[in-house]
Structures are given as structure tokens and as C-alpha cells.
Design a protein that fits this description.
five-stranded parallel sheet, AAA+_ATPase, binds adenosine-5'-triphosphate, 550 residues, four-stranded antiparallel sheet, ABC transporter transmembrane region fold, ABC-type transporter activity, transport, 9 strands, alpha/beta, 2 domains, Rossmann fold
Length: 550
């Protein structure tokens, strides 16, 4: 119990500065609702007792009083609803912003090691659940408690024996529901996990459709999808089974309560201990109490299901962020080069060593080509230089300052990186080039495209610079995508160029354009080019053979 209460409290703490306002208006919303329910329950008592006894003396005053209370409760609930929702919306916006910002601050290794489909599906599910927690779950779980307490007071004033009996049955109902809370939570967690797996399989099929068709993998991947689908259906069915059982149990409690109340009430009216009006008012209040007890019993397990999602988001938000750190210091009075790797050791987590005592010195405005067999660590050198990964040992510096001293943003501002498969965002060509410098004018974009030998092919496309490149640039050839990425790098105008050349898949014409663009780009810059071909090596004034320095 203590554990559950602390979970509820911690989840409320997460609202931060909105917490106090949220709680005040959650409570006043509950009071407004139950005020309306109570006055509606009591009005028939006044009318019935007056007509049965023929005494209309105080009827008018009482009716005015109840009508006034009803109106006040109504106004309270409307005002509370508005402020409560505003509070929730503000929190939702903050939560989505925090998750989005966190994603951009996580290290590259996190994304390389997780499946994008699964990550996305789990995240969307958890965010929706966390939002639902504050939007409706707290309200649905706590409003019945407020209703229960506020209904019990007039009930006790009307008849305490019958009220005690009803409270006892209601308590049994809540305890029975609470006993299922852990199972509901587990079923929710398993269903969420299975749903994420299912979405991982769908993403694989959608993203790899060409490979699937080429290698006729339809059956293999469909089989995997079917297994994930079966697992999801099994878990969802289990969750539904628990829900159906709870519903049946709660209906049983409702019937039991009504029978007990009717029998006991009839006996009391017969023996003259109560009036018809009181019996009707008690019946109305009793149904409100039973509804409250059942709702609280049902909603509490669901509340913990939503809290589980919030906890997952919290652990995501507290994950270790990207830090650039350099293991060793450079001794003083050394001859400094512009880019320097000194005795660098590196291996990816749990993998074999990629770089071992790796040394490299590049002078300012020097253009060096990095060659070596596939998988020897060429792209890894770029990833270290960009601060995507930290070296295990050794020292990496730019212009005499270690990467750590620059920090991630300043470091990446100094580097224009053109990967083997540049990523183009869904949108126009102009927008994609503009990422290099969001302040650039249209003329500057055209200049960059011309320098990257991209202007001519862009002008031949329908709409020119307004041409929409498709998902990840799928409506452009690989050579065209590379030239758009080079134009983007031109706009960035960074002093260091890292070019992971991928001309091997290009025809002679495209390769010529890409190399011509690269040649323009590296003018008066310090550049590192990964190249496997003589044509690429030709651009450089130094060759660094990775296998020879490892
Ligand atoms: N994110 C990663 N996690 C684990 N291992 C990785 C990761 N990225 C690369 N590797 C491994 O590190 C080694 C070096 O990879 P890298 O991409 O640097 O090679 P490369 O020389 O650029 O290869 P290629 O010429 O084929 O592009 C390879 O054995 C590769 O399998």
C-alpha cells in the first residue's frame, strides 16, 4: 500500500510547478460533481415527504436551498474543469518538449543500438499513457473518493445503520479490485512491449521492402510478423480477460448492494423508523456511493498501468546524455597540428578493438585521403572526430584544443560531414540545402548548389528548388543526394570537411559530378576524405593507410 501511495505521489511530483494548481482544481472538480449529485438526490426527499405528510411549510425554502447549492456546484465544476484542463495541456506540451529535446541530446550509440520502430512505438504509447494519466486517470480515480466521502455525510444524517451496511459492502468491493491492480499493471506492460515488437517488425518490412522483394524474404519476415502479432494478441486478450472479470465481479457487487438495501429499507419503513422520502434519497445516494466505490476500484489498477508508462518516460529522461570527453591530456610544448589523434584506442561497446594506438596528424588546409580495407575503422575516425563516440584511450585535438574543450555544439559547428548515405529530410530541395545555414538567402542557396554541381539537375526537376525529394530523398538518385549534401556543406562553410565518399555505386557521369563538387568544397579547407578509388585519392595531397598505422 505504501509503495502504491508513494508511486501516486511521485507521479504527481512530476507535474512540477503545476502540481499545486492541478490538485486544487482536481479536488474542486470532484466537489462540484458530487455537490450536484447530492442535491439531485435530496430534492425528491423534500417533495415526497411533503406530499405524503401534507405539510408543505418548509418545502419552498428547502427547494430554494438545494437549487442554490446545485447551481454553485455546477459553476464550480465548469470553472475547475477549465483550469484543470489548462494545467494538463501545459504539462503535456512540456513533456513532449522534454522527450524531444532529450532525444537530440542522447549519444549516437543509443540510436545505433536501438530499433527505431520499436523505440518510436514504445515512446508514442508511453507519452499517450502519461498524458492520459493527468488528463483523466487521476480524475477518474479520485473523483469517486470525493463523491464517496461527501455522499456519506448526508447519508449518515439520514440513517446511520443503513449507511454503515452500505459502506462495508463498498469497502469489500474496493479491496477486491485493488487485489487485481498488479495483474492489470503487468498485463498492460506486456501488451505495450508486444505492441512495440509488432511495430518493429512492421518497420522492418516497410523500410526493407526492396531487399525483401529482391531476396524473396516475404515468407521469413511475414512469419516473424505473425509470431509478434500472435504474442500481441495473446497479451491483449489476457488484459481483456482481466478487465471482463473485474466488470462481472463489480456488477455482482452492484446487484448485491441493491438487494441488501431494498430488504433493509423496506423493513425500516414498515417499522416506522424512516420515511418514504428518506428511503428514496438514500437509494439515490446509495447508487452514487456504489458507482463511486466501483469506479475507484476499477480506476486505481488502470492508474498504475498509466504510472508504469510515466516511469518508463522518466527513466528515458534521466538516461545518460552525450558528453565529449578525452581520456588523456597532451603534454605541453608539442608541435601542434590542426587535427591530431595521438595513441588513440577505441572499441565499440562489447566489441573487438577497432583502433589501437592510432596516430594521425593533419595540418591546416591539408587534404588527406584515408584508405584501408572494409571494416578497418575509417568511418569510426570520423565518428570520434565528431564526438559521436569517445576514445577509450589517447588524445584527439583540433587546433591544439582537445575535443572536450570545444563541447558538442562548437565542435560540430567547425565540421561539415558528408556521410556515405546522406540523409535528406522529406521536403523541398531548398529546405534540404538550407539546413546547412538556416539564415541563408535564396541566392546563397543557389550559389551553393552551383558550386556543388547540383544547380543544373535541380532546374530540370519539376518545380526546381521547390521539388519535394520524397522520404529520405527517395525521389533522387544517390549521386544527386550526395550533391545536395555537398551543397548543404558549402552553405555551412565549416573549416573542416569530412567526406565519406561513396562513388562506387555511381556511374561515370555521376561520379565525375560528385568529385568535381567535392573538389570545389575542399578548396582552402582542411579535409579528410575516405576513398576507395583512385579518382578520389587524386583529390588529396596525403594518403593515410589505416592498416599501416593500426
Ligand atoms: N555502431 C557500431 N557498433 C558496433 N560495432 C560497430 C559499429 N559501427 C561499426 N562497427 C564495427 O567497427 C568496425 C569499423 O567500422 P567502420 O565503419 O569504421 O569501418 P570502415 O573502415 O569505415 O568500413 P567501410 O569501408 O566498409 O565503410 C567494423 O568491424 C564494424 O563492424
Amino acid at each position: 500500500m505504501k509503495h502504491y501511495l508513494s508511486q501516486i505521489k511521485e507521479a504527481l511530483d512530476y507535474l512540477g510547478k503545476e502540481k499545486r494548481l492541478y490538485l486544487v482544481f482536481l479536488l474542486s472538480l470532484g466537489l462540484g460533481y458530487s455537490g450536484m449529485a447530492i442535491t439531485i438526490s435530496l430534492i425528491p426527499q423534500v417533495l415526497i415527504d411533503a406530499s405524503v405528510s401534507g405539510n408543505y411549510e418548509h418545502m419552498k425554502e428547502k427547494l430554494f436551498l438545494y437549487a442554490g447549492l446545485f447551481f454553485m456546484s455546477f459553476l464550480t465544476s465548469i470553472l475547475s474543469q477549465y483550469i484543470y484542463r489548462r494545467c494538463v495541456l501545459r504539462f503535456q506540451a512540456g513533456l513532449r518538449r522534454s522527450v524531444m529535446e532529450k532525444k537530440t541530446r542522447l549519444p549516437v550509440s543509443y540510436f545505433e543500438n536501438s530499433h527505431s520502430g520499436e523505440f518510436l512505438s514504445q515512446m508514442i504509447y508511453d507519452i499517450n499513457k502519461a498524458e492520459e494519466l493527468y488528463r483523466s486517470k487521476y480524475k477518474e480515480a479520485f473523483n469517486p473518493i470525493v463523491a464517496l466521502i461527501t455522499s456519506v455525510i448526508p447519508m449518515f444524517l439520514l440513517d446511520h445503520t443503513l449507511t454503515m451496511l452500505l459502506l462495508f459492502i463498498s469497502l469489500l468491493c474496493v479491496l477486491a479490485n485493488a487485489a487485481f491492480s498488479e495483474r492489470v499493471k503487468t498485463a498492460g506492460r506486456l501488451t505495450a512491449g508486444a505492441s512495440a515488437k509488432l511495430s518493429e517488425r512492421s518497420t522492418d518490412i516497410l523500410s526493407g521492402i526492396l531487399t525483401i522483394k529482391e531476396y524473396q524474404l516475404n515468407e521469413v519476415l511475414s512469419g516473424k510478423f505473425r509470431t509478434a502479432n500472435k504474442e500481441y494478441a495473446g497479451n491483449a486478450l489476457n488484459r481483456e480477460k482481466i478487465g471482463a472479470f473485474l466488470e462481472a465481479m463489480n456488477s455482482g457487487f452492484t446487484v448485491l448492494c441493491s438487494i441488501v438495501f431494498l430488504v433493509a429499507g423496506s423493513v425500516m419503513v414498515q417499522s416506522g423508523k424512516t420515511t418514504y422520502g428518506t428511503l428514496v434519497a438514500l437509494m439515490n445516494l446509495e447508487s452514487s456511493i456504489i458507482w463511486s466505490a466501483l469506479s475507484a476500484g476499477k480506476r486505481f489498477p488502470e492508474l498504475f498501468d498509466n504510472i508504469a508508462s510515466l516511469e518508463r518516460i522518466q527513466s528515458f529522461l534521466t538516461m545518460e546524455e552525450e558528453v565529449i570527453h578525452v581520456p588523456d591530456r597532451l603534454e605541453e610544448n608539442q608541435n601542434q597540428s590542426f587535427i591530431e589523434f595521438k595513441n588513440v584506442d577505441f572499441s565499440y561497446k562489447n566489441n573487438r578493438e577497432v583502433l589501437n594506438h592510432f596516430n594521425m596528424q593533419i595540418n591546416q588546409n591539408e587534404v588527406a585521403v584515408i584508405t584501408g580495407r572494409s571494416g578497418c575503422g575509417k568511418s569510426t575516425i570520423f565518428k570520434l572526430l565528431l564526438g559521436f563516440y569517445n576514445a577509450d584511450k589517447g588524445y584527439i585535438a583540433i587546433d591544439g584544443k582537445s575535443l572536450e574543450e570545444y563541447g558538442a555544439n562548437e565542435l560540430r559547428q567547425m565540421i561539415a560531414y558528408i556521410p556515405q548515405r546522406p540523409y535528406l529530410f522529406y521536403g523541398t530541395i531548398e529546405k534540404n540545402i538550407r539546413f546547412g545555414n538556416p539564415q541563408a538567402s535564396f541566392e546563397q542557396i543557389v550559389q551553393a548548389a552551383k558550386a556543388a554541381c547540383a544547380h543544373d539537375f535541380i532546374m530540370e526537376l519539376p518545380g526546381g528548388y521547390d521539388y519535394v525529394v520524397g522520404d529520405k530523398g527517395s525521389k533522387l538518385s544517390f549521386g544527386q543526394r550526395q550533391r545536395i549534401a555537398i551543397a548543404r556543406a558549402f552553405l555551412k562553410d565549416a573549416p573542416i570537411i569530412l567526406f565519406d565518399e561513396a562513388t562506387s555505386g555511381l556511374d561515370y557521369e555521376s561520379e565525375r559530378f560528385v568529385l568535381q563538387a567535392a573538389e570545389q568544397l575542399i578548396q582552402n579547407k582542411t579535409a579528410l576524405i575516405i576513398s576507395h578509388r583512385e579518382s578520389g585519392v587524386r583529390l588529396c595531397n596525403r594518403k593515410i593507410e589505416i592498416s599501416s598505422v593500426r
